[in-house]
């Protein structure tokens, strides 16, 4: 195991219906928003039980590069505000983290020197053009090669004037979230009018607005227009919820095996897209019971084929697609064309890998058609995509010999995934 890319993990088969409780780590989306908002606040924020993974380390690293500072505490980090006096040219490492690539460029305008943004080969294919255009209209000076993807350089200007801007956020909701999260630090705040097709991932937009409010910002939404007033943010303590999208493969395991899985600490109220599993899983024959301890899912005797528009919850697609390979009949997933610009082109990757193991899966422009068939073992390529490791694990529950390539790539959001999965299976 000297080279993680040559490494394979044989996903374990469930020999009986599961009966397990699991705890998943903190939400990536909440953790990285909390860090950004803390960096823009007027006083330090104690971020409690955050996710500790590649993407969140990249975010803390980016904020340090941009003039911030964080100290480990017993259960997280104390995140200090950015100092506006950063004067040396610097490079922000993006890895393949969409949240770091989209949320931090606006913060680079607060310093006095240029910042280069670059990362993995994969992030150089992920869209960011409409966000860079909007930031330029709000006063930023940004140099790029015109491809609308990293690398690019933001010139330090000691802040942005802000104001009104049109934005096409149809390729990623993160463009809109980026402008709203940074909005309180702009001289005039920001008013964003969405143009073009509706953005995906509506729950992540709601998460952005909710967290801005918790940090004391004044935000308003009227249809497709959003306003954030200039404010000095403040939130002495922020407790991060468990990641409900990371919980998805564990709940899918209950459904796939006709067993029971309890996810501890499921929040009663949340903006996370993973909460939609409480609606989806009953449609797949499962029973879902929330209680004070969390959420319990028990799979039914069979899984019906379904038609699903996953536009609002696109990041759940890999795990849901894997689960639907065990359905009684064909399924169709629509509304997720934007997944072609995720960690990898997830539509093509899922069609290729699920088909390679025997399912009949075809791509459409904006989704997948899945016709279940008898599956067999083989290599499941993961394209440096954490959620493909999770999808492969779900398949492996009922298929002998699923060899998951590069399982360590799951460390983007859950470094202990393989251990937690294995112990769930007893
Ligand atoms: O804002 C966020 O934290 C996220 C928004 C979504 O991005 P897209 O809107 O690009 O799908 C989601 O898929 C991603 O995992 C996290
Ligand atoms: C799309 C995802 O990640 P990112 O934050 O890199 O966009 C994801 O986690 O499914």
Automatic annotation (TrEMBL):
Its EC number is 2.5.1.19. It is found in: Cytoplasm. The keyword Membrane does not apply. Pathway: Metabolic intermediate biosynthesis; chorismate biosynthesis; chorismate from D-erythrose 4-phosphate and phosphoenolpyruvate: step 6/7. The active site is at residue 315. It catalyses: 3-phosphoshikimate + phosphoenolpyruvate = 5-O-(1-carboxyvinyl)-3-phosphoshikimate + phosphate. Belongs to the EPSP synthase family. This is 3-phosphoshikimate 1-carboxyvinyltransferase. The lineage of its organism: Bacteria, Bacillati, Actinomycetota, Actinomycetes, Pseudonocardiales. The gene is aroA.
């Amino acid at each position: 195991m000297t080279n993680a890319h040559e490494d394979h993990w044989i996903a374990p088969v469930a020999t009986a219906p599961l009966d397990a409780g699991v705890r998943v780590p903190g939400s990536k989306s909440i953790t990285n928003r909390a860090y950004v908002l803390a960096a823009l606040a007027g006083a330090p924020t104690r971020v409690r039980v955050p996710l500790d993974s590649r993407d969140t380390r990249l975010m803390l690293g980016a904020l340090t590069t941009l003039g911030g500072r964080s100290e480990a505490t017993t259960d997280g980090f104390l995140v200090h505000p950015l100092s506006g006096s950063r004067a040396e040219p610097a490079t922000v490492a993006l890895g393949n983290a969409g949240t770091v690539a989209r949320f931090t460029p606006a913060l680079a305008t607060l310093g006095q020197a240029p910042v280069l943004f670059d990362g993995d080969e994969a992030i150089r294919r992920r869209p960011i053009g409409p966000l860079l255009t909007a930031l330029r209209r709000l006063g930023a000076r940004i140099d790029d090669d015109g491809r609308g993807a990293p690398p690019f350089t933001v010139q330090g200007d000691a802040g942005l004037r802000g104001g009104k801007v049109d934005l096409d956020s149809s390729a990623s909701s993160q463009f809109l979230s980026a402008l709203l999260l940074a909005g309180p630090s702009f001289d005039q705040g920001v008013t964003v009018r969405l143009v073009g097709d509706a953005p995906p991932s509506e729950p992540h937009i709601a998460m952005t607005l909710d967290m801005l409010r918790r940090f004391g910002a004044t935000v308003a939404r009227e249809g497709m227009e959003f306003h954030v007033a200039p404010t000095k943010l403040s939130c002495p303590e922020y407790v991060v919820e468990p990641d409900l999208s990371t919980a998805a493969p564990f709940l899918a395991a209950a459904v796939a095996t006709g067993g029971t899985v309890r996810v501890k600490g499921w929040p009663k109220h949340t903006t996370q897209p993973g909460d939609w599993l409480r609606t989806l899983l009953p449609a797949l024959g499962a029973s879902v019971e929330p209680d004070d301890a969390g959420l319990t899912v028990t799979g039914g005797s069979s899984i019906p084929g379904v038609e699903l528009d996953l536009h609002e919850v696109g990041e759940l697609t890999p795990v849901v697609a894997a689960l639907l390979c065990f359905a009684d009949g064909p399924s169709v997933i629509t509304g997720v064309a934007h997944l072609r610009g995720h960690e990898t082109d997830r539509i093509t990757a899922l069609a290729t890998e699920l088909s390679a193991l025997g399912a009949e899966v075809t791509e459409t422009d904006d989704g997948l058609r899945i016709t279940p068939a008898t599956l067999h073992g083989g290599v499941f390529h993961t394209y440096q995509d954490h959620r493909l490791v999770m999808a492969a694990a779900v398949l492996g529950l009922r298929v002998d010999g699923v060899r998951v390539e590069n399982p360590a790539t799951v460390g983007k959001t859950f470094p202990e995934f393989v251990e937690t999965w294995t112990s769930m299976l007893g």
